[in-house]
């Protein structure tokens, strides 16, 4: 008998990690759940999911992790996160014991970060964001096109091992926000930069993917909006 990958289910295989004793929520098309389930992992691939003993009988794991009955599920995906701003978010004291309104302070801090942060700071912020996300069950996020140094954000994500989708930085050709350094750009510059990160999608195994994003908030011309939509359609992103 063979599984979906074509492997013989009766043959004992080696896997890197076996997660056992978990309440496995598969999120598959049938909404399958295994109250005492197991997950086998080899490298970056999940190679088997199923009820207790059924998976373990097929694999000889190098490492076993007992989930202790906790939920085991696919990682969360944050569809809109400004990782370069993560350092400022760590400075804000949160909780009912802190009565001061942090809104104005945070706005100023974000503005100053945008003015003075460069590659090293952006890398550190994205590194910290990735670590916090992984610790809280997130395995991917989408940067909405506001990272001035997308290559450094990508490098930080790869260092952590978290997936991300990034875009060209700050594509706006009309009056931008006061804190945006060097914005707005002229339309020609925006059009030349549009789609500049899509080369990342050539490798299907890459942790870092790319999408099309323009800044929004009324900061884009109709020409730029139409070009962005056409670029996204052409590249199926």
Walk me through the structure.
- Strands 2, 3, 4, 6 and 7 form a five-stranded mixed sheet that branches. A four-stranded parallel sheet has the order 8-9-10-11. The protein has a two-stranded parallel ribbon with strand order 1-5.
- The protein has helices spanning 86-91, 103-116, 119-135, 150-160, 187-193, 222-234, and strands at 13-15, 17-25, 33-42, 45-51, 59-61, 64-66, 71-72, 76-78, 138-142, 163-166, 208-210.
- It is elongated and about 65 Å long.
- Helix content is 29%, strand content 22%.
- Helix 3 runs parallel beside helix 4 (150-160).
- With 237 residues, it is α/β, with parallel strands linked by helices.
Element-by-element helix/strand order: EEEEEEEEHHHEHEHEH
- The number of strands is 11
For the terminal residues, how far apart are their CA atoms?
A: 38 Å
Uncertain stretches: none
What class, by secondary structure content?
alpha/beta
Overall pLDDT level: 87
Strand content: 15-25%
Output the number of helix runs: 6
Q: What shape does the CA trace take?
A: elongated
Helix content: 25-40%
For the CA atoms, what is the radius of gyration? 22 Å
The biggest beta sheet is recorded as:
5 strands, mixed
């Amino acid at each position: 008998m063979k599984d979906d990958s074509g492997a013989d289910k009766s043959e004992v295989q080696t896997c890197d990690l076996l997660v056992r004793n978990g309440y496995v929520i598969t999120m598959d098309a049938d909404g399958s759940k295994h109250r005492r389930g197991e997950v086998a992992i080899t490298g970056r691939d999940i190679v088997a999911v199923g009820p207790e003993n059924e998976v373990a009988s097929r694999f000889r794991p190098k490492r076993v992790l007992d989930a202790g009955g906790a939920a085991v599920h696919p990682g969360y995906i944050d569809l809109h996160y400004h990782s370069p701003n993560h350092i400022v978010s760590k400075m804000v004291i949160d909780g009912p014991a802190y009565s001061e309104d942090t809104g104005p302070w945070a706005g100023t801090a974000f503005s100053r970060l945008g003015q003075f942060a460069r590659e090293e700071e952006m890398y550190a912020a994205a590194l910290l964001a990735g670590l916090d996300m992984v610790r809280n069950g997130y395995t991917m996020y989408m940067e909405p096109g506001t990272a001035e140094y997308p290559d450094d954000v990508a490098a930080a994500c790869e260092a952590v091992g978290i997936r991300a989708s990034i875009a060209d930085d700050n594509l706006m050709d009309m009056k931008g926000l006061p804190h945006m350094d060097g914005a707005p750009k002229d339309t020609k510059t925006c059009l030349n930069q549009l789609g500049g990160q899509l080369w990342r999608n050539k490798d299907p195994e890459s942790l870092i993917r790319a999408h099309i994003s323009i800044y929004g908030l009324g900061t884009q011309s109709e020409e730029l909006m139409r070009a962005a939509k056409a670029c996204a359609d052409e590249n199926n992103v």
